């Protein structure tokens, strides 16, 4: 079968021929129907050799949807032909966090060598993929896999962050969304669908700011040296109860620090590599800084329900598997409006 792999440190990914995988005991093989691209793929491909821990060659793709194609011995709970999405942050399945469906915070996964698809395990940028356990599959029940595959990360991750700050997103509150790309434009829709907050979208790109308005942002602000002042003016000097930074760079975290309100939240979702010190002489009194990771299995069900209701829709650009390297180049250059999806 064909697969898109990262094969050498610093080299671009390439489409290669590999053996079609066979499911082992308890495993499920999917015929991949859609695979989403993500900036975190570029993050790991940009790591130097002494920091890269994901194994080579690595089949990319941690946003996955497919049709159940073959069951390994003992695999139950799904049937051949089921159209499913893949819950990506795989855990041990036995600890307290996993028992709650919060496998994104499993404390045992790394020690047991359990890795998400595309982030250690072979991913979805291929004609077929292996899922380690049927519990990591969610039926799509009529949803188009291409339109919704990105919700497994680009929807689940912002949803998880928003849910964890929901007590501060009351009527009259302000939520700032910094970076209105693949995750940010979905975050705006989730905020509109699940909260009464006023939404301020921040970005450098005018086209992405236009997209933010299209999907429900109340205000847009260009991400420049005056951004913090504009947001303070929009909030009558109070600041934002919650700031969601989907970039995570020094400049964007500085904006977050300057606009978060007293007792507010800063959610650092983007992996731009910057950090935000917090304390009495850094962030406002009572403000908390959090780095959320992915989301729970039950939250993925809720995100897909939002999609079924029409409240959330990912703006998708489709690519064939042969064009996936070009799609990654455009993603790296910021030339994707919404989310790029590979259809093998």
From TrEMBL:
Superkingdom of the source species: Bacteria
Catalytic activities: a primary alcohol + NAD(+) = an aldehyde + NADH + H(+); a secondary alcohol + NAD(+) = a ketone + NADH + H(+)
Cofactor(s), names only, from the UniProt record: Zn(2+)
InterPro entries to which the protein is assigned, alphabetical: ADH-like_C, ADH-like_N, ADH_Zn_CS, ER, GroES-like_sf, NAD(P)-bd_dom_sf
Keywords: Metal-binding, Oxidoreductase, Zinc
Zinc among keywords: yes
GO molecular function, one term: zinc ion binding
Membrane-spanning intervals of the chain: none
Pfam families: ADH_N, ADH_zinc_N
EC number: 1.1.1.1
Domain Enoyl reductase (ER) residue range list: 10-342
Family as reported in the entry's similarity comment: Belongs to the zinc-containing alcohol dehydrogenase family.
PANTHER family for this protein: ALCOHOL DEHYDROGENASE 1-RELATED, VACUOLAR PROTEIN SORTING-ASSOCIATED PROTEIN 11
Protein name: alcohol dehydrogenase
